[in-house]
Design brief:
The complex is a heterodimer of chains A (718) and B (217). With 718 residues, chain A is an alpha+beta fold. Chain A contains 19 helices and 22 strands. In chain B, α5 packs across α9 and α7 crosses α8. The longest helix of chain B is centred in the middle third of the chain and has 33 residues. The radius of gyration of chain B is 24 Å and the shape is elongated. Classes of the chains: A alpha+beta (718), B alpha/beta (217).
């Protein structure tokens, strides 16, 4: 023991005697209870703390007291308190007495304004503020003087005030000790746990949690006790469908030790739900925008796959068991499945095609005929008149069903069906607007797809018409091509007949004649085959071909026409030209078109200047070019860009589809087609095509490949 | 087929057709010569020869109608039978106006073709005969003196010797002598024959004198 502590001890040892003197003089007159505690034997201060406490408790008795003190113990006169054992007096305060004595011993045999709760004879609890000063002589505690005031009323007022405050708080507020036993709780707590106060107060908190069905692991109290800091967590209370915000504030003593914790539980279900809803909403929006983007880019043959993906997303998003998109037939009498997305665990659902209109007559009537939504969260929601539908639902294991009509141009064109089979899906109603939105997006895509298919069909027809028209212009030439071999055959045959009749038929000559007839017959057949091929509708037969050959064929086809119109067609062919891959008939049509146009362009010139030149050249790397050049008036600068637009024509009786179709065909061949005016007069139209590469077999052998891309139907470009 | 046989000149750019036509013509007893292009035919020495032309209307370089015109300009009067792949009315009218003998549409039957060829060759023969006759008359005309030509033209206009003498400022007797010489040189037996011969040779009567005669009572 150091000198400073000794000095303090000696100084503090003076104090008890003065206090004793004060108490003695004050004993009679004091309003507060004053008493003197003595022990049967001196308690050595050298003993270990616990032994001192035990000794004081065992040997202590009331030596003197005043009447105020006696009244506190429910007796009239102080004499009656004399010789009362301390043990007895503290018997009903549990460990509180020993605790107080421990504080007394540890604090140098002094207690200052310590709280003590004593149960009185009538069983009520009273709070006292206790002071105790021990007299230590010769290393032993010999006496102790105490004073105590009844502060019960004060306490109750304060406590009542606090409790009223607590109870006013709508959040549950609990005070817990270090053992996580509930010391204090407000009425909101009792309400939250749906328990009476007595089932909460004094209970270990984790028991409450277990009973309530909250995972103890989710409770922040333990953590707050460990880290000794404010802790806040969101606690899911799934059995109640509630979210709680749990806050724990530790109450620290002077030494920084935790004595108690204050735990507040706030119901944040509403916020959480709206947050979750917002989150889901956002998720849904993302889903929709992603879907829209995908559908925008989807080619016609991908649309159905995207619809399927969307249905799966809807099903997963809304936790449904099956989603379907059905199309109403044109006569509004039946539905046919466009796409269906059953949950993997639910099998195929409507595996066999069934007549929905027959199986679900009431639903069909409501949705398709009247354009109303049908929602049955449970089958009981179906009205009595929907008995057939209900039976069908039962048969299919459907427990909740939502059917939404989707309009296409003023009538119900499609129907979205959402089905739950594993459980009754109560939340379907709020999904209606979203499902409708999603459905509208899908239907728009499908409508667009159909419009494009229709437009494509129309385009094919137009292409066919244009082809026929182009051929009409060439009928004369083709007829000539046919008449040549026919005439030759006829003349040969008749020459042979004559020789035969005259008896002068030389076998060698006959052989020549027959050989010529055979070759002319084949020639006529070839002409017919070409015509037939040209007339055939939109079949795409890509093959490796030589553009020089193509030019020569076209020049030959047009030779007669050119002769009649006195147009000189000159060929300027590249000596070596890589092959391209394409449809010979379509490319022939393009070149025919360009050359016929060129011939039209020079029509009004003097015969000597009616010149059309067809040239081919290789454009490294990897392209070839075919150009048709005329000496005509050229193309007006305003029109130069628009010549490939549909319905562009300068001819009095032209459809204006020729060059548009040419462009479609060339684009489908991954080529380009352009027009320019020549510096020295006339116009040049040319197209380029990629060179055939042996590895490039994407198109080869596929009989029906994408047809020429549709040109934009907007009016000619500026 | 002998060298004396009439020749049919076939101009068509289609070799097979050319061959077959030649065969047919030869089987019918004609000589046939074939050309792929009008230019080849024009370059051929035989354009003044006898025969007829079987011509495709649509030909490279020069079409059939143009060839017809060039042959006319070259003084070739060979009859032409046109063969056409397509019967185009304006073209056929033009061809016929320009003297085409026939206009056949391919494919045509041998009888039609051979009939057309036969009539073309007949026409050629007639034309050649006529041209030979006119040649003789023209030779006779060429032997006349200028005075005799004058007298001839007055005789053709139907003037009497006296009137001719008046017009030429001489006496009737002298005119008589000229007239006799003209008749002899032209080998005409009568004035009527003389008029016919002169007509065929394209000699015209003297117009002013005719007017004078017309005015006389």
């Amino acid at each position: 023991m150091c000198a400073a502590e000794q000095a303090m001890n000696s100084r503090s040892s003076q104090l008890p005697h003065e206090t004793e003197a004060f108490y003695r003089s004050y004993l009679a007159s004091a309003l507060e209870g004053i008493w003197c505690l003595e022990t049967d034997m001196p308690v050595s201060t050298a003993l270990p703390e616990e032994e001192q406490v035990a000794l004081i408790l065992r040997c202590g008795y009331i030596a003197q007291s005043n009447s105020a003190y006696a009244r506190m113990h429910g007796v009239a006169r102080p004499e009656e308190m004399c010789r009362r054992r301390l043990q007895d007096l503290l018997a009903r305060s549990g460990s509180q007495g020993a605790e107080l004595l421990r504080t007394f011993v540890r604090g140098g045999y002094r207690l200052v304004e310590n709280e003590l709760c004593l149960e009185t004879a009538d069983g009520t609890c009273r709070w006292f503020s206790l002071n105790l000063t021990g007299i230590v002589e010769n290393g032993s505690l010999v006496r102790a003087w105490g004073s105590q005031r009844d502060v019960t009323q004060q306490y109750e007022r304060v406590a009542e005030g606090w409790l009223a405050t607590f109870d006013a708080i709508r959040d549950a507020v609990l005070v817990m000790d270090l053992d996580r036993r509930v010391v204090l709780a407000n009425t909101a707590t009792f309400a939250l746990f749906r328990l009476p106060a007595r089932a909460v107060l004094g209970r270990p908190y984790h028991e409450l949690l277990l009973e309530a069905g909250i995972r103890v692991a989710d409770c922040p109290v333990a953590r707050a006790l460990r880290i000794k800091k404010r802790t806040e967590v969101e606690i899911p209370w799934s059995v109640r469908g509630v979210w709680l915000l749990g806050t724990v504030d530790p109450i620290l003593d002077e030494a920084g030790g935790v004595t108690q914790v204050v735990h507040v539980l706030k119901d944040i279900t509403e916020r959480k739900v709206s947050e979750t809803a917002a989150c889901r909403q956002l998720q849904f929006e993302r889903c929709i925008s992603a879907l829209s983007a995908r559908l925008m880019q989807a080619s016609n043959d991908q649309v159905n796959a995207e619809v399927h993906v969307a249905l799966r997303e809807i099903r997963e998003f809304f936790e449904l068991d099956r989603t379907e998109l059905l199309e109403v037939t044109a006569d509004q009498s039946a539905l046919k499945v466009v796409e269906s997305s059953p949950a993997p665990s639910c099998g195929q659902g409507l595996a066999e095609p069934m007549d929905v209109a027959v199986a679900f007559p009431w639903v069909f009537e409501r949705v398709v005929r009247r354009g109303q939504c049908v929602l049955a969260s449970t089958l009981d929601d179906l009205p009595p008149e929907a008995e057939a539908d209900r039976v069908e639902c039962l048969a299919q294991g459907i427990r909740s069903i939502l059917v939404i009509p989707l309009s296409v141009s003023a009538s119900v064109g499609y129907v979205v069906v959402a089905i739950a089979t594993r459980r009754e899906h109560t939340g379907l109603e709020e999904y209606i607007p979203r499902l409708r939105l999603m459905g509208d997006i899908l239907v728009n895509a499908l409508a667009r797809q159909q419009a494009e298919v229709r437009a494509r069909r129309l385009w094919d027809q137009l292409a066919h018409v244009a082809r026929v028209a182009a051929l009409g212009e060439l009928v004369a030439a083709l007829a000539h091509e046919l008449t040549q071999p026919l005439t030759a055959m006829l003349s040969n045959a008749q020459a042979a007949q004559r020789r035969l009749a005259s008896g002068h038929l030389d076998p060698a000559e006959l052989e020549e004649i027959l050989a010529d007839i055979v070759s002319d017959d084949l020639r006529a057949g070839e002409v017919i085959r070409r015509v037939r091929l040209s007339l055939k509708k939109g079949t795409w037969q890509p093959q490796r071909l030589d553009c020089n050959r193509l030019v020569i064929d076209v020049a030959r086809l047009l030779r007669n026409d050119a002769l009649l119109r006195q147009v000189a067609i000159s060929l300027d062919l590249a000596p070596t030209l890589p092959s391209v891959q394409g449809d010979p008939i379509q490319l022939q049509q393009v070149l025919l078109n360009l050359v016929v146009n060129a011939m039209d362009a020079v029509e009004d010139l003097p015969a000597t200047r009616r010149q059309v030149r067809i040239a081919t050249r290789s454009l490294p790397p990897g392209r070839i070019q075919v150009e048709v050049c005329d000496r005509g008036p050229g193309i007006a600068a305003d029109n130069l860009a628009g010549v490939f637009a549909p319905f562009y024509t300068t001819k009095p009786v032209g459809l204006g589809m020729g060059l548009a179709i040419c462009r479609s065909i060339i684009q489908a061949h991954e080529g380009t087609i352009e027009a320019r005016n020549n510096p020295d007069g006339g116009a040049t139209l040319w197209f380029t095509l990629p060179v055939y590469e042996p590895g490039q077999t994407v198109q080869a052998g596929v009989p029906t490949l994408p047809l020429p891309a549709l040109p934009s139907m907007s009016p000619g470009r500026p | 087929v002998t060298a004396a046989s009439p020749t049919v000149f076939v101009v068509d750019d289609d070799s097979s057709l050319r061959r077959s036509l030649a065969r047919l013509l030869e089987a019918a007893g004609y000589r046939a010569e074939t050309f792929a292009a009008p230019a080849d035919f024009l370059a051929h020495a035989g354009i003044q020869g006898s025969g007829c032309l079987l011509l495709d209307l649509q030909l490279p370089g020069l079409n059939g109608l143009e060839l017809q015109q060039r042959l006319h300009e070259a003084g070739c009067l060979m009859p032409i039978v046109f063969l056409s792949g397509q019967a185009d009315v304006p073209d056929s009218v033009r061809a016929m106006k320009a003297g085409a003998l026939d206009f056949l549409t391919k494919p045509c039957r041998d009888v039609d073709l051979l009939a057309a060829v036969a009539s073309a060759l007949e026409m050629d023969r007639r034309q050649r005969r006529e041209r030979a006759e006119v040649g003789v008359i023209q030779e006779h005309l060429a032997s006349l003196t200028p005075r005799e030509r004058e007298v001839l033209s007055h005789v053709l206009s139907g003037a009497l010797n006296k009137q001719i003498a008046d017009a030429l400022g001489t006496v009737e007797k002298t005119i008589k002598v000229h007239r006799a010489r003209v008749m002899a040189k032209m080998q005409a037996g009568s004035v009527a024959e003389l008029v016919r011969l002169a007509e065929r040779a394209g000699v015209l009567p003297s117009p002013p004198f005719q007017q004078t005669v017309a005015r006389s009572p």
